[in-house]
Structure formats: structure tokens, C-alpha cells
Amino acid sequence: MGGTFDPIHYGHLIGAEEARFRFRLEKVIFVPSGQPPHKKEYQVTPARHRLAMVLLATASNPYFIVSTEEIERPGPSYTIDTIRNYRARYGDSLDIYFITGADAILEISTWKENEKLVRLCRFIGITRPGYDLNQLSHRLPSSYLERIDLLEIPTIDISSTELRERVRRGEPIRYLTPDAVCDYIAKEGLYREERETEKDGQE
Q1: How far apart are alpha carbons 82 and 73 in whole angstroms?
Q2: In terms of Cα–Cα distance, which of 136, 139, 100 is closest to 117?
Q3: Mean pLDDT (10-residue bins), the chain, 203 residues
Q4: Listed residue (184, 146, 145, 155) closest to 167, CA to CA
Q5: How many Cβ atoms sit within 10 Å of the Cβ of residue 89?
Q6: Sign of CA dihedral 41, 72, 158, 187
Q7: What is the bridge-based pairing of β-strands 122-127 and 97-101?
Q8: For the whole model, what pTM was predicted?
């Protein structure tokens, strides 16, 4: 499961656990991006903070693992590089899924080496009730759609953007993200001075 995780919240965690259960995954590896390749409309929080929050949020689930490989790899963080590393590590016999939001999958044709990427792994697109599935069929070729599984999950309508904005406005975020993440944000003074918001995407 890749993303900026700025910050991680219950939507991410619910999606990861539901995907693990529905697709009988051995484990879910959270991969915080080091340098997001797509232009952001706000200053991304330093990787060490985003990593710390993901570690805190996932610590209680024995099936969740956190990887630092994109943070440690220099340059922009591209999904194709990460998936190639996993293919080299685990071989071709293992099924690898990339979990992300369905809205992010709509933009997959803009990702680096996307044609090779869809051959190297399958995708699980996390979506909410009422999501218009026709969006995918209208924007992606059939060869891509064959590699994408959509997973509707029961979740709250929350995004990392909204959490950052709530902190900036002095509003509570408890019960939207684990307590340990709330405490970390308060302790480190994150998001208080942010003036610009990020559009929803691979977060």
C-alpha cells in the first residue's frame, strides 16, 4: 500500500485490513513515499514524520509491515521501482497487489512505465459506496481493467487533506486517526502553519 500518508488515517487502515481479508493476503506492506513524483500543492511533511506516524498507526496489527525503501531511495518515488524490487525479491510465482484509492487508479496512465507496471502486479482500488465505476471503464484500456480489482469498503469520508486542514483550524482529529498519531502530530506541531491544501490522490 503506497502513498504519502500525510497523515495516515483510519481510511487507509480500514482499506488495508479489508483488502488483506478479502484477497487473503499474507501481509500488507505500507510504503510511504520519499519524494512524491507528482506535483503537490502543499509542502509535503518530512519523510521521517510521515514514517513515524505510519509505524505508530500500524503497530498493533501483526499483518501490517512498514517499508522504508522509497524513503531511503534517492530521487522521486516511483511505484514501478518498488514493484520491481519486490518481484526480484519474491519471484514471479507470488501474487503482488498494489493497494490504493480508486481515484488514484484513474490516473495510472500518468504513472512512470505504467504499461510495464500493470503486468508486474495487480491493483486493488479502494472505493466507497456510490462510486461511479464507469469512470474506470471510460478512462482506462481493457488490458488495464483486467488487472484491477475494486474493493468497496465501509469507511468514513475522510482524507489526509481534511485532517491537515482540521489541525490548521484548531479542530479535533481524534477518532479520525489512531490516538498515537494524534499525539505525535500535537507533540511535533505538524500542520499548524499549512496554508495550502492538497487535492485528493495518492495519499
Answers
A1: 10
A2: 100
A3: 96 96 97 84 90 98 97 94 95 94 89 96 86 80 94 83 96 97 97 54 40
A4: 184
A5: 8
A6: negative
A7: parallel
A8: 0.89
